[in-house]
Each structure stands twice: as structure tokens, then as C-alpha cells.
Amino acid sequence: MKSKAIRKLDNALRLLKFSMAALVFFAFFRSIGGFSFLLKPENKKVVVVQKQDKPKTEDIFGSDVENGIHIPTGFIAKGGYGIVIQNCITCHSSKIITQNRMDAKTWRKTIKWMQKTQNLWDLGVNEDKIVAYLGKYYAPKKEGRRKALVVEEWYELK
Ligand code: HEC
Question: For an engineered disulfide with 123, which of 10, 16, 107, 127 has Cβ 3.0 to 4.6 Å away?
């Protein structure tokens, strides 16, 4: 014979198990759409979630990129090249840029010079991005020193 207390505990446990099972079933039922299969299709709520995120500037031109180069302009399609396209090829060819090599400081000077003398507009926060892009991908080429000669055999001058 179980004591009264044990029986009470048994009942409580049974209730707990039952409610857990009900909860799991309910969650599953909801996840497969509940009773919505009874509704006519036009009564179903259609939730259209549209992504409102603006594409990054770099992505706008992505379709014209081949082998890492933006074909129409010749720019290296990395980092902020989209901003460069938007700001730097209205007045002159992109070639004037891609054929140049400068460090970041000199790129900034060139921009300041165009602003002073060529009516280039204030680039705002984009100036740093443009300078960073140009300073990185259109930096002076490092030629490096030639490798030291390896002399295998000395000969004597006579
Ligand atoms: C408002 C017009 C305009 C815009 C926009 C413009 N430039 Fe220029 N830029 C000029 C002019 C004009 C010249 C001189 C062209 C020439 O000498 O034939 C020039 C020359 C240059 C030169 C050559 C400088 C030299 O020493 O010969 C470079 C490099 C250059 N621009 C880069 C840029 C970059 C980078 C941007 C974007 C930030 C840009 N330009 C945007 C007008 C502009």
C-alpha cells in the first residue's frame, strides 16, 4: 500500500509529464501551421518580409566585376572602389587614377588640389575611404633591391 503522500507525489508527477507532452505537441502543432490547413488559401496570412537593407556601394557595381577588376573602369574591385567610381570619374577617365601610383598622403594632396582648383566637391566621410582605397591598391610599387649575386666559382684575374 502506498502512503497518501506518495500517491499525491505520483499524481503530481503524472500531471507534470502530461503537461510537458502537451506543451511539446502544441509547439510542434504551431510550427507546422496549426489549423491553417483548414483555411482556404486566400484566408491565409501571407507575411512578406522584404529586406530593406541598402546594398553596399561595393555591391552596386559587382555585376561588372571580372577577375577582381571592375571592367568598365579598370579599378581593382576591392574595398571602397564603389565610392571611388561614384566620386572620381565624372570629370576624367578612370585611367588617370589607375595609371597613377601614390602613397595615401599624396593621394590626399591630389584630392585637395582638385578641390581647390578643379571644383571637386567636398567628399565628407568618403574622403578617408577613398584615400584608404587608393593608398592601398594604387600605392607606389616596391621594386625592391636586386637579389645578391651568388658566386659559385671565383676566377683569378691575370
Ligand atoms: C570636379 C571634377 C573632378 C573630379 C570629380 C575628380 N577630378 Fe581628378 N582631376 C580633375 C581635373 C580637371 C584634373 C586635371 C586633368 C588633366 O590634367 O588633364 C584632374 C586630375 C587628376 C589626377 C592627375 C593629377 C596629376 O598630378 O596629374 C588624378 C590622380 C586625379 N585627378 C584623381 C582623382 C580622384 C582620385 C578623384 C576622386 C576623389 C577625382 N580625381 C575626381 C577633376 C576632377
Answer: 127
Mean pLDDT of all residues belonging to the chain: 86
94 Cα: distance to centroid of ligand 1 (angstroms): 9
Residue 91 has which C-alpha cell?
Answer: 570629370
Given pLDDT bands bounded at 50, 70 and 90, which one contains residue 46?
Answer: low
Q: How far apart are CA 138 and CA 97, in angstroms?
A: 8
Tens of pLDDT along 82-122?
999 999 999 999 999 999 999 999 999 999 999 999 999 99
Burial of 57 (0-12, 13-18, 19+ CB in 10 A): middle
**Domain definitions of the chain by residue range:** 4-38, 42-158
28/14 Cα distance (integer angstroms):
21
Query: From the CA of 51, how far away is ligand 1's center (Å)?
Result: 37
Residue with cell 573602369: 73
This prediction's pTM: 0.64
